[in-house]
Amino acid sequence: MTLLEGKQVVAKKEEELLNISKEYYEKYNKVPCLAILSNNNDEASQMYVKRIEKNCSKFGINVRSYISNTDDDFINNFEKVNNDEMVTGIMFQEPLSKKLKTLVEKIDYRKDVEGITTKNLGKLFLNKEEKIVPCTAKAVVDILDYYGIVVEGKKVVILGRSNIVGKPLALELIAKNGTVTLCHSKTSNVGNETKNADIVIVAIGKANYLKAENIKVGAIIIDVGINVVDGKICGDVDFESVKSRAAAITPVPGGVGVVTNYCLIENIYKTFKLQNDKK
Ligand code: NAP
User: Fold this and answer.
1) What would the pLDDT profile of 79-90 be if each residue is shown by its tens digit?
2) Between helices 166-175 and 135-146, what is the axis angle to 10°?
3) Best residue among 5, 165, 252 to mutate for probing ligand 1, ranked by most atoms within 8 Å of CB
């Protein structure tokens, strides 16, 4: 069984990103700027923001973090950064009120570094070169690519149809000529689907859900899930059970999650290039 570790994928990305940051600085004579907007001082959320800031600073990206106390304050900050030419990308930090969530659609699509606006999702649907792939879906594809796992002609089963993971991932893997089945909470017999799959990707948020008896021998298993059980982080795959039958698995922690953080940096640099080449 091969462990599909994220740290090796990240080591390659790190080298590429350091080169890109240097090249773009010389070419455009400026650095990208990411604006992160939060609407409260939620501790977990701000810890996540600190992690993004640290990762961005490694690759020469400035971060402006705005923490608002009211919806109006958030909206004012949003309008400021959305119209500011110096801001490359905008991220909203959960938790957000229903009213603020509707603002996602107002993000200038050229600053949508998470690839979540309708316009960017349309580009993904049409597989346009300038598409911005949502970070977690991109991380899964990049892990498959890094480890030389061929998708073309394979039966791929994805569990979970969220807009940020399952659905964009299905589009990406269809573009790679996989035969993709997307399962969700109303799928009548998920096990029947996973048992026949060459590649199973689980993104449902249910600890240790996928068991050995529900995969075929030699399957590739990608675990996107992040769950906390008894104070420990685990995935949606029952790793101990599945490892006896799978050909390869991503660990949790140490798999998709670590790669996702670097995909955000790649999306920021892709956005930065698209904005500056168009001028
Ligand atoms: P989400 O928005 O809650 O969506 C969960 C999806 O799973 C839904 O489509 C749901 O179906 C489906 N589902 C639930 N139970 C199922 C079952 N028994 N069989 C098949 N499908 C089932 O979750 P998400 O944001 O996509 O995140 C999924 C997991 O990935 C979570 O553990 C999250 O923490 C993790 N995650 C990890 C990363 C990373 O970087 N590694 C990033 C983002 C998320 P319905 O649509 O029918 O409700």
Assistant:
1) 999 999 999 999
2) 40
3) 165
